Amino acid sequence: MNQILVSISGDLLGIIELCFIIFLLKQNEILSTKKTKQYLMVAYLTLFVILLEIASVVLHTYGVPETRILSYIVNILGFSITFLLPVAAGILYSDKVERNKKWILIPAGIGVLLCICSIWTGWIFYIDAQGFYHRGNHFLVNTLISIFGLGILLYAHTELAKEYDNLERRYLRAMFVVTMVTIGIQILIPKILIIWASVASMELLYYVFLRELQFKYDTVTGVWNRTIFELDLTRLQPKEGLYLVECDVNDLKKVNDTLGHSVGDKYLKDCADIIQKTYGKYGRTYRIGGDEFAVIVQNCTHERVEQARNEMLEELTKIKGKYPVHCYIANAYVDYNSTIHEDITDCLKDVDFKMYMDKIRSKEI
Q1: Taking 90 as the threshold, does the pLDDT of residue 161 lie above it?
Q2: Which fold has domain 226-364?
């Protein structure tokens, strides 16, 4: 009994962490309802696979012929979830993985079928007449599918990190590295069961990461919020090539009043995506008010900023007809000039005035 408790002590810690995660996710929505549901699915899958691992340890320790069928069920379910879990986590981290999930899940599906077939063939594993577990002659297939899953997880982490700054990237890399190290430790010392406990820890750290982001990002649009905008302004060292851009979404109040705030949020999100896709590729995009956005562009040229403006106007045509208003984003940009602007605040006043002039002109059309 003591040997079992030592073996599963890491798993017990993982269960506690996952219970915390599930409780917190049910209390607080992360990013969106969809993402919260995906996160809950990953947490439940991890919890289930840990429970199956504990059951497997108990069955392997006290193997008897009567538990042979139960051992097959536990191991098939355990291997199947092990194949699926990295893909599920990849979907949580990366929209690209989600879009290609049908193809990415093919190896996992093959692995599940091979595990089921192992009841009769023993390809991946088999349970002997005494009820003890053994690896099959084709267990390498199981390993390769698991490596593929880790590759998907690494790709998803890499895609996720692209969305954030250097400090946040280092945090995400550290999460992944810790998990890889624990996998290496368990491979070298199989008696130490710490992989799933480390996965649970990674999921808890990711929850902390997302909660921290909610203090930095606007939850409706996904761009940086006003607090970060003001902080970045104080850190700026005004010089040539610095542009301040301001945008104001027309008729947001009208959409809210006629169709409700949920549709208004979609309209705002569509406009934020357009700003991020065009101006945002040259700098950081912020939501600084109800319908106002700003972009800080550094080390850029007038030609590129003007091109971004034209691209934004072109992108707006794609959402016309989607909402019962004239879809337009009033906008303006100003390049910092030390001979005209005393400081960055002076530059901000300049762009603010030009943006509202554009808004007045757009209302006259």
Answers
A1: no
A2: Alpha-Beta Plaits (3.30.70)
Question: Any idea which fold 2-213 has?
Answer: Rhopdopsin 7-helix transmembrane proteins (1.20.1070)
8 Å CB contact between 93 and 79:
no
Q: CB under 8 Å, gap of 24 or more: what pairs does 128-137 form?
A: 129/65, 129/68, 130/63, 130/64, 130/65, 131/59, 131/63, 131/64, 131/65, 131/66, 131/67, 131/68, 131/71, 132/60, 132/63, 133/56, 133/59, 133/60, 133/63, 133/71, 133/75
Amino acid symbol at 284: R
pLDDT(41) > 70: yes
Question: What's the pTM value of the predicted model, to 2 decimals?
Answer: 0.72
**Higher per-residue pLDDT: 182 or 189:** 182
Any idea what DSSP says for residue 335? E
Share of the chain above pLDDT 90, in %: 42
